[in-house]
Specification:
The protein has helices spanning about 30-45, 50-70; strands at about 1-5, 10-30, 75-85, 90-105. By secondary structure, it is an alpha+beta fold.
């Protein structure tokens, strides 16, 4: 599955637009991770526990995005974006979304 953040794919043309597709993940760091991260935030700088949590959540959201687009019959996703939000003070929501399309190589 080709995923791009652009509207077009170089040397390809969109033959069918299938609609919006998305993948959503809500994650929470455990109590131990929150305590360690809280202590690190006192000192300042990067908090690796949260960085890993969000990187994993983004990858998982992309996996779900691809599953959704594949079920729609797409072979590509254009205009892919991420959105995120906090739910309460312990959970993060990550959404990967875009437009599911069918593309083919452009004839020359």
């Amino acid at each position: 599955m080709l995923i791009v953040t652009t509207e077009n794919v170089a040397n390809h043309r969109v033959v069918r637009t299938l609609g919006q597709c998305f993948g959503i993940v809500v994650r929470s760091r455990g109590l131990g991770g929150n305590i360690i991260a809280g202590l690190r935030s006192i000192v300042g700088g990067e908090i690796p526990e949260y960085t890993r949590l969000l990187e994993d959540a983004r990858r998982h959201a992309i996996d779900r995005l691809v599953e959704n687009a594949t079920a729609m019959g797409a072979n590509a996703i254009v205009m892919m974006r991420f959105d995120s939000a906090e739910i309460g003070q312990t959970m993060s929501e990550i959404v990967a979304y875009g437009t599911a399309v069918e593309i083919e190589p452009a004839s020359r």
